[in-house]
Amino acid sequence: MSIPRLTDRAPVVGADELVAAMTPPPRFGAVRFDTYLPNPDEPSQAAALAACRGFAEGVAAGPPRRSWLRSLFGGTDPAPAQPGLYLDGGFGVGKTHLLASLWHAVPGPKSYGTFVELTHLVGALGFAEAVHRLSTHRLLAIDEFELDDPGDTMLVTRLLSELTGAGVFVAATSNTLPDKLGEGRFAADDFLREIHAMSSRFGVVRVDGPDYRHRGLPDAPEPVSDDELTRRAAGIGGATLDDFDDLCAHLGRLHPSRYGRLVQGVTAVHLRGVHAAPDQDVALRLVVLADRLYDAAIPVAVSGASLSALFTEEMLRGGYRKKYLRAVSRLVALSRDAVRA
């Protein structure tokens, strides 16, 4: 029996579809503020939940801006109205859950996407057209705001300036590196510095805690043999089986904005002969693919090397360290899902 392959797919996504697809991924399609359970040992999580609820109320009310910061930080004088909210914290503390809940809580029109998806949207539409389409929205939610590419950061900062000037509210999340969690607002300081022209428009809320994806859980499952991988793929309807090198080459022929469509409808992904990414370009494509697989909650099983070894030590010491750590965290979670399945 022939097993479907991702490399046989060549999806095409139109501009209208790109804008319409700016919604929370299936994994976060049903989350709400009421389903967020703050860790009782981390009071910042309950405070962040309250801040997001308040911000959502301000977005729903629309202009004039509601002073949600006053209730959060205290004081009798009205705080300056700010159209931006930034959730600062480490991996797996529920920031995406809160951001998606905020998006669900406000009326449209509204958009939701990762930082990378937003840059891909601008690349596909052009800057002026992206501003034209998004400036009519009430809210733009940006997950995983990234600061490691100056060009992309400047592009998105300029976009946000145009949108907030048009009355659009913006909520964003980012990550503090695991080894920087004890250094206060490391990520927040970077964020505000990089968007210096916009910093006064953002209120910063810290979300602390351990990565829930790894609480009491084992390391990445061991890879299986090629024969076992093929047997598993053949036994799951809608699953795919690809040689890792072939898939990496195929990703290079597709615009990253198509990766979501590439895995649409797939029930499980099986990769044969996994090894460390050979270079930075391949590694960054794998990061985007990992995000789309995680968004769609698609289990991943492999032969060859473990998914935790997908990026070399040199890569993990470089400027894209945060991207790679996030990808590993998500792929390990998906590989555990494959074991349970």
From TrEMBL:
GO terms for biological process: cell division. Keywords: ATP-binding, Cell cycle, Cell division, Nucleotide-binding. One of its GO terms (molecular function) is ATP hydrolysis activity. SUPFAM superfamilies: P-loop containing nucleoside triphosphate hydrolases. Signal peptide: none annotated. One of its GO terms (cellular component) is cytoplasm. This is Cell division protein ZapE.
